[in-house]
Amino acid sequence: MGFWEKVERVDAAVARFYARRKVWIWGVVSLPVLYVAGWMVWVMLWAPPAGGVTLIIHSKLDRPILGFSVNGMAGGNAAAHNPNHKYTSESGGATTCCGSVRGKTAEVIWTLDVTGPQYDAGMRPEQRRVEIPMPERKRGENDLHVHFLPGDRVLLGWSDNAFSPYDPRSPNHTPPPVNTEEQ
Predict the structure, then answer these.
(1) pLDDT of 128-158, one tens digit each?
(2) What is the tally of structural domains in the chain?
(3) What is the per-residue pLDDT for 87?
(4) C-alpha 173: how far from its chain's center?
(5) DSSP letter, residue 40
(6) DSSP structural state of residue 128
(7) Do residues 98 and 164 both lie within one domain?
(8) Is residue 41 part of a domain?
(9) Cα 36 from Cα 63, distance rounded (Å)
(10) Which residue windows does the record flag with biased composition (Pro residues) (predicted)?
(11) Residue 114 is part of which domain span?
(12) Confidence at residue 136, expressed as pLDDT on a 0 to 100 scale
């Protein structure tokens, strides 16, 4: 038996196999494609929000914030808030992109620094920690605003833009909870 006869016999065997089982073969080949297509539809329509988070710091403290973290994702710093200076706002801080913040609760750890006069008065840097409930994140909301308020209070809020949800200029303005207002 020559080489070409063997090739023709193999070809005939493959043709018979395909003729008898083509529905099964195409079913097995199409399963991964259907799975990936179904997964993509699920992610687009029903999956919970996920992806990178930008941390934006807002401080109303009279001390600078040297750095902070939310559930292990490091954030930036902020200068001391000076209500007597007309060009300062409550933001005055940094943004940090892109990390992952997950969980039902948020562990916020921050380091309070001191200004020159505060250092001369005997104050030293301190680290603070608080655990609070994580607000609900909706699809498209990738900015987590972290507000540091007097009395070791922290306020978290999600938004889909650079404005805090607690900022009156925000298109999705939400009044802050009652217990976070300044005294």
Answers:
(1) 999 999 999 998 899 999 999 999 999 999 9
(2) 2
(3) 65
(4) 20
(5) H
(6) E
(7) yes
(8) yes
(9) 51
(10) 173-183
(11) 53-177
(12) 92
